[in-house]
Amino acid sequence: MEEQVVADQEASSKQGIFATVLATISGIFTPILPVITAAGMIKAVLSLLTVFGVVAADDTNYQILNFIGDAGFFFLPIFLGGSAARQFKTNQQLGMLIGAILLHPSFVALVTAAKEAGAGLNFFSIPITLSSYSSTVIPVILAVWFMSYVERVADKISPKAIKFFSVPLLTTLVTALVTLIVLGPLGTIVGNWLGAFFLWLEEFGPWVVPTIVGTVSPFLVMTGTHYGLVSIGINNRMTIGYDTIAQPGMFPSNVAQGGAALAIALKTKDVNKRALASSAGITAIFGITEPALYGVTLRHRPALIGTMVAGGIGGFFMGIMGARNFSGGSPGLLTIAAYIGEDTLKYFYTAVAGLVISVLISFVVTFVLYKED
């Protein structure tokens, strides 16, 4: 009996830690959903305009729409700095300042010049890793988490008469230096490891990565690590002309979340839940999954199971059929035309089939498993 009680307590503790981590991540990313949604939809529209020849990559119209859409992703560390500071109960403005420091043009120029010259970058003989932090997620979250402790110590040791300027001074200076020297590079290393891992899987089998990404994509998006895959996809399109890693895996997962949310919308008797699930389901099918992810998928286990099963099957189908994405964008119905290229509609038809398969499977699995609380 005592052993059973201890086992139950340990299980409860593990579940509590997992729930806390999910709540923290959700709390960091939920406030910036409008930014991500706006940027993603603008990029999706630009992708459609490009595919159908309305704009070209070398004209001014494309460039203007491109930087408008890119702004939300490029300056993501600033937005994340504010939301992470709120979650870690520290100063939001200082959190945003840490994000801005990572993106400052002078720092970017120093890193670029050092790379071009083949030299290093040092602060009082302490080496600083030559990393670029635009569109990154992990470095600024680590930095703001560290900052929350620095601010408490600074507040404790600062005399009351000078706290107004001593606390922000010490907090910013210590956090910025530790981030540039330690935490930023650490976050970059984690992202690089993830990228290398997926590239290894891609070499192992062309269907492996889309299957895995399709299965675990909700967790990648939840932790922000999917941006590492996005960068790999961009590099592939720039070098070989198409992406077979990020988009063919994330596409079925995105639309699968839409199918799962619509299943709950159809089955639930809760009016508010139906309204949330139906709207989130539609936007997920179109390629914007955050409302469905944080509002439905992570809150209802059947939806998560349905999404992972359908995303994995859809990713396997996309991979085994050799689906190629030619222009990126937020994976979903709005950017399905990005699978048109090389003077053939083969990959487009594959994407359409993958969408139908993923939505139907996620809808059926979620509908069968879901029970009203």
Write a brief caption for the model.
With 373 residues, the protein is mainly alpha-helical.
Describe this protein's structure.
- The chain is 75% helix and 2% strand.
- The protein is mainly α.
- The chain has 2 domains: 75-204, no CATH class; 210-369, no CATH class.
- It has a two-stranded antiparallel ribbon.
- A hairpin with a 2-residue loop joins strand 1 and strand 2.
- It is globular and about 65 Å long.
- The chain starts with a helix and ends with a helix.
- The model has no long low-confidence stretch (mean pLDDT 81).
**Helix coverage percent:** over 70%
Distance between the termini: 30 Å
Q: Shape from CA axes? A: globular
Structural class assignment: mainly alpha
Low-pLDDT runs of 5+ residues are none
The sequence of SSEs as H and E is: HHHHHHEEHHHHHHHHH
Topology:
Layout lengths: L1 H28 L3 H19 L8 H15 L1 H12 L4 H12 L1 H13 L3 E3 L2 E3 L9 H20 L5 H42 L3 H16 L2 H14 L6 H22 L3 H16 L3 H8 L3 H20 L25 H24 L4
Helix pairs in contact: 1-4, 2-3, 4-5, 4-7, 5-7, 5-8, 7-8, 9-11, 9-14, 11-12, 11-13, 11-14, 11-15, 12-13, 14-15
